[in-house]
Amino acid sequence: MRLSTGKILLITLFLTAITVGIALYISADQSEKMNITFQRVSHTQEVLFQAEKLLAALTERETLTREYALTGDEDYLRLLEKSGQSVDHEFSRLKAHTVDNDDQQKRLDSLGRYIRQGAAISDSLVVLVQTGGRSAGAGLLATEEVKKTGSMIRQLIVNVENHEQKLLKDRRTANINAMSNLRAVLYVGISLLVILVMVLIQKLRVEVIADKETYGIMQYNATLMNNIRDAIVSTDKDFNIVSWNKQAEIIFGWTEQEMKGKTFASMMSPSYKDSSRASVIKEFLKTGIWSGEVNIEKKNGDIITILLSGSLIRNSYGKITGTVAIARDITSRKQVEEQLKMFNEELGKQVEERRSELNDVIEQLVLSEKKYKLLFANNPLPMMMVTLPGMGITDVNDAAIEQYGYPKELFVGKTIYDLLAADGESYSSLLTEESLGYHYGGECKHKKGDGSLIYVELFTHGMIFEGRQTKLILAHDITQKVEADNKLKQYLEEIRMLTGHLLEIREEERKNIAREIHDELGQQLTVLKMEVAWAIRKLKHPGKQEVKLEGLLETIDGTMRSVRRICSELRPTLLDDLGLVAALQWHAGQLQSSTGINIDINAPEEISNLTPEIKTGMYRIFQESLTNVVRHAEAKKVEVCLAVADKMIILHIKDDGKGFDISASSQKRTLGILGMKERSLGMGGEYIIESYPGRGTSVMVTIPIEAGAENLTTKTITNDKDPYSR
After folding, report:
1. Which of 289, 375, 448, 594 stands 20 to 30 A from 523 (CA)?
2. Is the pLDDT of residue 713 over 60?
3. In the chain, what percentage of residues exceed pLDDT 90?
4. In the predicted model, is pLDDT for residue 260 greater than 80?
5. CB atoms within 10 A of CB 18
6. Averaging pLDDT over each range in 71-85, 268-282, 402-416, 594-608, which range is the top one?
7. What is the distance between the alpha carbons of residues 272 and 48, in angstroms, rounded to a whole number?
């Protein structure tokens, strides 16, 4: 026999009530015992406390008696009187606390006699001190009777305390036992409750799982029917609406959110043909199904007729968990039925026309599908159909089969991830996300059937195909384009290396030419000058010949100066002998003296550890920059700054000339600026030029000092902001 959840709940509550009642009864009994034991323990502790206070009062009285006997001070006498009163008070309280213990009362009676005896001795000692002096009092304190009395008092108090200590131990033991019994009862009661609750939870869990399964099936079925032309409505066991498909929204006018939790009858006031609402519900609950025509009121107030079919849903235990109903709007059909008798022939013609139109539409759809398949299959570009979210390939065209080299039966069933050349690669999110429309999927590397690799450019188009989210992917082979780009980059790098090599060769040739001119032509001119000078000195008859020779000597001096100037321009010896800073200062001085332009140089005395390439390159950039200033800038002042920071050598040249439009100049491809940029790039550095009409020009060159610096670029700043604002 299978018990329902309600019966199991009642049985569980009944057993829980019995268990709780028994536990409360035993707990109350044990609590009362614990309370009594606790009171007794407290009483015993109070007796011990009073015994200690009595002992302290007696000790104080004895001490004061001795002090008075030894000193005769009247102050001790007053304190002794108060101490005696305190002893009597504490003894009375102790006796009152032990009134229910006969053994303790007997001990306290004996103690009382000795206390009175001690009081009498104290009084006698006072009288004796007052009449016979302190020596007489001291003699009385030394007697055996006094010592014995004090000893007996302390012994009796100790006996009282020992007896109370034994009682305290016994009562604490009883209290612990009572608490243990109470805990045991509580543990047993809680265990029984836990067991009962677990049984109930298990039963309810089974019920809930069964309800969830049934409800899940009901929701699944409702989802499947969401696109049907009929309204699908599901409710819980109390007829409150749980789901409401799109067609229901179209037919009745209410959205699912508006109807959830409400009943069908409360919102639409249904009226049943030839039946009352009560009889329909009764028949529905009895048979489990019902079907019939119902007139209902839509959200906008219109009255429509629907064909309603409903069924009860039961779980595996036979319990009702909900209902499901299918409603079809038959208002138009009813209206047609009413007019059918009058317009039967005309209606037949309309049906035939509609049927003909439908056939035409079907034929057009079939034709469109054939055209789509034809375009897909015969497209010269590789295409594949992929379903989301698994990205499985469901169809490919002949171009894709030819490109990748897989047979179609092996191609279909793979995922697009299987085509990736390496595990570390991935696709763009636009390729894998569930989105409709056209998207660019980026570039990636794919592996063909023979193991070779190709670069592909992906284009996707998301759509709904056969009821599923689908991506149409076009994989364009761009391997040749990628290889051509790589070769172009390689050629550019080789050209850049060749340019650097040619610059080195040109500087070396300039160096050799300067050396040859200086060594050969300079020496010959020097010898010629010495010979002419000697000839002037040897002339016996000076005159026109001497003037002629002196003019020749001046010509020779001018020629030697020109030779030195040409040698310096080809390759200044200062650059090799004294370094970059000295060469820059010399060239600036030469240019300033010849043009009148004020050139200020801010630089350290020297920069060591510079390679010959860097020194030569920086000097030539400086030389070309100043040449441009002289030719084009019409400047009056040039500021030059050379510095080293963060393992970089920085050259900054700024003039106050007329400036120019860099964007217009870049279109002319000026060779001077281009040459400086190439020199900077060849040294692994960066060349930046900023200029604006009427605001002068600024050049910044940054070169890494360390060898092997790479990946630095040249930048040109256009006139979108003030170069001096920085």
Report:
1. 594
2. no
3. 5
4. yes
5. 11
6. 594-608
7. 92
CA distance to 197, 236, 324, per residue, from 208 (Å) = 16, 14, 19
In angstroms, the CA 164 to CA 104 distance is 9
Q: Determine contact, residues 719/663, Cβ cutoff 8 Å.
A: yes
Whether cis (ω within 30° of 0) applies to the bond prior to 572 is: no
- CA dihedral for 391, 397, 401, 407, sign (positive or negative): positive
Q: State pLDDT tens for residues 418-436.
A: 888 776 666 766 566 666 7
The beta strands (E) that lie in 49-204 are given as none
Tokens of 651: 């050259």
CA torsion, ordered 184, 185, 187, 191, to nearest 10 deg: 140
d(CA 122, CA 116): 10
Q: How many angstroms separate the CA atoms of 103 and 134, rounded?
A: 41
Predicted pLDDT at 602: 92
Tokens of 575: 């650059």
Measured CA to CA in angstroms, residue 477 lies from 424, 428, 482 at distances of: 21, 17, 10
- For residues 617 and 647, the answer to whether their CB atoms sit within 8 Å is no
3-class secondary structure per residue, 328-374:
EECHHHHHHHHHHCCCHHHHHHHHHHHHHHHHHHHHHHHHHHHHHHH
Structure confidence at residue 440 (pLDDT): 77
Residues 29-45: tens digit of each pLDDT? 666 766 776 676 677 77
Q: What is the CA radius of gyration of the chain?
A: 59
Domains along the chain? 5-196 (1.20.120.1730), 227-340 (3.30.450.20), 379-477 (3.30.450.20), 577-725 (3.30.565.10)
Q: Average pLDDT of the chain?
A: 75
Higher pLDDT, 659 or 424: 659
Mean pLDDT of 289-314: 85
C-alpha to C-alpha distance for 59 and 62, rounded to whole angstroms: 5
Q: Check: CB of residue 178 under 8 Å from CB of residue 29.
A: no
The phi and psi torsions of 475 (rounded to 5 degrees) equal: -110, 95
Task: Give the integer Cα–Cα distance in Å for 8 and 436.
Answer: 55
